Amino acid sequence: MAFDTDQIAELDLLLLFPDTSHMQGLKIHRDADPAKIAAAQRLFDKGIISQVDGGYLTELGHDLAKHVHILQTALTSKSLG
Q: What is the domain count for the chain?
């Protein structure tokens, strides 16, 4: 099963959260890309972020963002061996 466009937008948004601090969040403005606004709404509805317009990652969000960062790093590495 492939990721759909909504899931990819959610993964991309998770990559924007800092992976080094639990005290930093995001603010998605009303004039942002509509796909980014919709992704934030879905992540909020799933309990992954604390606010509909970004906010902070929840406990689940921190776990998922960590994995997304690892996946992104692995897929962009020149050599995995």
A: 1
Q: Quick check: 49 and 64 in contact, CB under 8 A? A: no
- How many CA atoms are closer than 13 Å to the CA of 13, on its beta-carbon side? 32
DSSP string, 29-56: -TTS-HHHHHHHHHHHHTTSEEETTEEE
In terms of residue numbers, what domain contains 61?
Answer: 5-76
**Quick check: 15 and 41 in contact, CB under 8 A?**
no
Sequence-distant (≥ 6) Cβ neighbours of residue 69 within 8 angstroms: 15, 19
Using one digit for the tens of pLDDT, what is the confidence trace for 4-47? 999 999 999 999 998 777 788 999 999 999 999 999 999 999 99
Does residue 81 lie within any of the structural domains?
no
